[in-house]
């Protein structure tokens, strides 16, 4: 049983200062550059406290001073904003079909990318690729940029070794992942601090930090990739849960098109589209080829999209019976035009369902797409060490 933790914990002076610094960086990261007076208004901190912290953050290279804004009563105001060069972070997505690695800056800009494709993941191949990629990308950075890399985030399905059947792999092929710890493996060749996060939760973090879902305080997030997954945003922060598995939406019960019982991951996943293509002798690799173009598959995609939309609408409404989410955000590893069609179809389906006792949520389109899990993994070290996380409180990052 997980350890029971108190609702709140005290904070000494150094922790309070760190809290206020995180708060101000988070406001700048979410809302953009602003002068100190506006920062004081939004945070509730005194103007003197804001001034002192802004000066320290600027000295540390985490924020930049903008051009003076004149033409107003009083002294000209100087906006302060996030310095993209202030921090860097690696994000790695270890998936069932590929491993993606990227380096991002403090603003979420992707500075470098690498990808490894496979039929199913093998540890030696995956971690060999990661080691080589980190070395190659690092060699192209300046000494100051390397010193500003704050960590590595790893996004992966929990219990990857259980998914051999779904990945089309021999039963024994993924057993090596059962006892394997990504943090330990990466520590063999990198001194950077490493954080592990569920792949769908990582995608949710990317959307919340860099996409459109930050417009809502509480939202449920669906990500359609090889399998369906998702994440939960509560009180403007991604909620991972005590086991790190909150928002594991794939196992939600649903009905297959033939009326039989199934799970969301069986009906609303790209793996299901792969299966349908194989049945008509079409190589499903076309679904993962970059840049994505599914236009020649319209005959097969149309029915899959319809079935997926129906399943998503039912799942979305069911989640609102637990928490009255303001919005349902839908993203996926698919062409943006298909994602837009899927969202439109879910919007049309939702009003046809019995919602007695519920408030129907807004249905919104995600903005990140196929990069979401790797980008969210890269965001994890930034959030854990420099930004606010409502559900983490003052607890040290794990």
From TrEMBL:
Which superkingdom heads the taxonomic lineage of this protein's source? Bacteria
Biological process according to GO: N-acetylneuraminate catabolic process
Annotated InterPro entries: ATPase_NBD, ROK, WH-like_DNA-bd_sf, WH_DNA-bd_sf
Residue ranges of coiled coil: none
Supply the CDD domains for this chain.
ASKHA_ATPase_ROK (cd23763)
- GO MF terms, alphabetically ordered: N-acylmannosamine kinase activity
| Protein name, UniProt field | MarR family transcriptional regulator
Q: Which taxonomic lineage is given here?
A: Bacteria, Pseudomonadati, Pseudomonadota, Alphaproteobacteria, Rhodobacterales
